[in-house]
Each structure stands twice: as structure tokens, then as C-alpha cells.
Amino acid sequence: MPPLSPTVRRIAVGGVSLGRQRRRRWAKSRNTPAFPAALPHHRAMSRISAQLSGLERTLLNRLAEDQAAIAMSTLRKTTGKNINRAADDPSAFVKLSQLQSQLTAASKATANATAAAQLTALAQTEAGSIAAQLQTIRGALLDDQLTPQQAQAVVDQALASIDRSAAASIGGRNWLGGGAQYRVSNVNQEQVAEVQVSAAVSGRQIYAVVSQSASQARLSYQGDSDNKVTADAQFGLSGRRGEIAVSATAGQTLQSLADEINQKSYLTGVTAAVNTTEHTLTFTSVDYGSRATARVEVLSGSFAVSGGDGHGFAQGDDALAMINNAQYRGDGNRFDVDQNGLRFSIEFTAGFTGATSTMTVSGEPLRFALDPNMGSSALLALPDLHAARLGGPSGSLDQLASGGPLSVASGNKAQAIRVVDEAAAKVGLAQAKLGGFAQATVNTALTYLNDLTTTLSDAIDRVDRVNVPRENAMISHYQALASNALAGLTILNQQRTAVVGLIRHIAGL
Q: How far apart are CA 82 and CA 129, in angstroms?
């Protein structure tokens, strides 16, 4: 190869020939040596690629963007989420966080409501079992085919079953045996027969002054001096619980007539008693208050009664009391009170008047967090359904056990049946309370929470749901763009290599 000309050599080492004078002036203006030492060939050649061209930068930036887009779409497909970090979409991320927080709270409340529904159903089953055992007792008392011993065995077995159901643990608490109610201390049974608190703050107090005790309905029949019926008569006897037909015969003793009426007192709610001194037969309602009634309606013959309205009808009076400084009229001796978050029912002992001891509320009943905002709880207070706590004016259910004052052997069958009926009424109230809580509170909460969960889930899906077909299309799109960018960079690199090769060839390097 012929030697290179000086001009070509100067081009190869990165310089252009200038006149010596011009070169000195140029170097002086830039404060640089006029004749720097010649650079090695490899350093001189590197100046050709010392900087990227604008096109290369554009292609590299585009390649990075395409690869980032591919990575983002792949991440969305993998996680199933459209927003994986705040930087993806700050405003949507904040909204999504709020929705997810609400959904978490709703899910917790739904779990609580589901558990409450299951526990309430178990309690309803046990309460239903108690009600069924009461009917078993009633049937045994009315079954003339059973011997007294057989009837008593049925009664004792049913009473034991009632106490087992009342003592059953449901969700770790004794729902029907006193474990689901507020505790009330300093209750004097001579003053207060029963107090049930359904809502209160621990430490609240209850005190009362009873100015008038509830009374029973009373009618009287005047017999002769021998305590006998004076004339034949047919009459209807009715009370709050029902009605029976009675036949009286002239010369019949008042006591035999009273026994006949008392044997059916569970049908009427009216008892009869003889005063041998005054030669009277008195009809008295079992219950107290204005809803306690006694009526004698003569169908034939003569059977005049006194008292009441003077026409064979009488009713009791309700109690009056000042409770926590507020005046109330009761339903008989029972009062339902609602005062500034303190809700309770109190029944005063029959015949009691005067001031009660001050009672204090403590503890709390069953509590369920059914509100997704966790701002409030649903409370459920249930009465104690043990046999000793069931009954009414006629007595308590445990008195029907062997050896008790109302056992089969006592001969007080009608009174025992009245006790069973009064116990059944209390159990019925507990069942109604359970049913109302299950339907109006728990089921309503579940319906609301399920709807809320669906709404929140749909809202989250709209914000965060991944459109897989779209992401697949985006991946394909950006892969194609990335391939184009790589192809462009490859072409530029090939061109650069070719230019360098040409120069090296020209320079003889």
C-alpha cells in the first residue's frame, strides 16, 4: 500500500492541517498547546464513538420504555391487580386503599354476624327444647292414664332436661342460664320479685317508691248459714285465661263448689275460696292489675255475686310507683322503664308498698360487633330459664319436683298447671326475644353487609381489576416496539462498525 499523504494522516489522528501562524493564534485563543503530542492510535480512534447520537438516545429510551411497559403488564397479570404500588396511579391508589379498608371492616362484621346467627340458632334450639319439656310436664299432669308415680317421674325428668338446656354453654357463655344478662345487686325479694335489665351502663342504679300495689279482681257469693249454695244455678265463670261452665246445686257445700272451680283454675285464671265465718265464696283472679278479670254470668237459676261493677264483673288495679324520680303506672305489678339508655323491667312483690333498696346494675349481656364502622354493638340480654327462675304468681317451676309443694303427690294439680303455663309464657318471651334479635338484628345486618361487600368488591374491581386480554395485547404491542428499537440499534451499530473499519482501513491500522 502506498504511504498516506500528510493530509490523510492528519485526518486519521483527528486533526486538520492549519497554517503554523493560524494554528498558534487558534491555540493561544484557547490557552492550549499549539502542538500537542501525537495521541496513540487507539485513543484517537475512540473519539469517533465518545458520544451517542440523538437517534441512538431516542432508540435506547424507547427500548427502556417498552421493556418497562412489558414488565408492568406482566406484573399485573401475575398479581391480578391493576395497581400494585402508589406510583402506578396515586389517586386511584388512595381510593383503592380506602375501598379495601372498608371491605376488610365489612368482612369482619359479616363474620361476626354469621357467628351471631349460628349462636342464636343454637340458643333458639335450646329454648325450644325447654318449651317442649314444659308441654311434656303439662301433658303428664293432665294424663289420667298415668299413676301419680309415673306422672312424677315424667315431671322430674323434664325438669332435669330444662335445667340442662338452661345451663348449656353456647359460644363459651351460658345464654339461657343467667350468663346473658346484666347483674343487679341488692335486690330484696320481699320488695322486688324480679328485675330484668336489657340496656344499661355499668354502675347505673335503680330505686323506687311504690305508692299503690296492684290488686286482683274479686267477686263474692253469699251462701247460707251452713255454708251451702242457696239455689240451683248454671253460670259461666271467666277470667284472663279463659272460661268454663259451672253448675251449682241448692244445698251443695260452698267448699265442694270451690274445689270444682279450683280444679279448673288453670283454664280461667280464677280461683275460689270459702270464708266459713262470713259464709261467702270469693272468686279471685290469679293475676294482678287492670288486665286481671273475673266474671260470673248467670245462665239459669239464681247465683248473685257482689263486688266489681255490681253486674258480675270485676278487674284489678295496676300498681303506681316513682322509679328513679319518674312516675309510672304498671301492668299489674310489672313496670317497663326506659330512661336515658337504661332500659329494664321490674316486678314488685305482690302487696308491697313503700321504698325499695337501691339496686346497682353491673356487667353486660351478649355483645355483637355487627357494624362495619365498629362504632356500635348489638346487645342481647336474656332471662335465666332454669326451673327455679320460671313461673309466676302461682309459684315456681322447681316446686313441681318430687317432694315439692306442687308435686303430683301434693294434689295441687291445677296450681301446678298454672305454674307451667306461667313458665311457658316466660319462655315464650325469651323465644320471641331470640327470634326478634335473629331476624331484625342479625339477619338484617347480614343482608346489609352482604350487599355492602358486593358493592365494595365491585368498586374495587372497577379500579383494580386486570383486563387480561388487554394486557396480553399491550405486551405484544410493546414487544413489537422493543424489537423495532433493537433492530434500529443493531443497524446503527453496524453502521458505526463499518465507518470505524473504513477509517482504520484508510489509516492503515
A: 54
Q: Which residue has the cell 351471631?
A: 116
Would the pTM count as exceeding 0.70? yes
Helix 413-436 and helix 90-142: axis angle, to 10°?
170
Confidence of residue 61 (pLDDT cuts 50, 70, 90): confident
Residues sharing a CB contact under 8 Å with residue 441, sequence separation 6 or more, in sequence order: 368, 370, 378, 380
| Domain 218-315 part of CATH 3.30.70 | yes
Residue 91: exposed, middle, or buried by beta-carbon count in 10 A (0-12, 13-18, 19+)? exposed
Span 377-393, pLDDT tens digits: 888 999 999 999 999 99
Distance CA 255, CA 280 (A): 10
Q: What is the full DSSP assignment across 431-474?
A: HHHHHHIIIIIIIHHHHHHHHHHHHHHHHHHHHHB--HHHHHHH
Residue 197: how many other CB atoms lie within 10 Å? 24
Answer whether 52's CB lies under 8 Å from 493's CB.
no
| Residues 90-179+369-465, CATH architecture | Up-down Bundle (1.20)
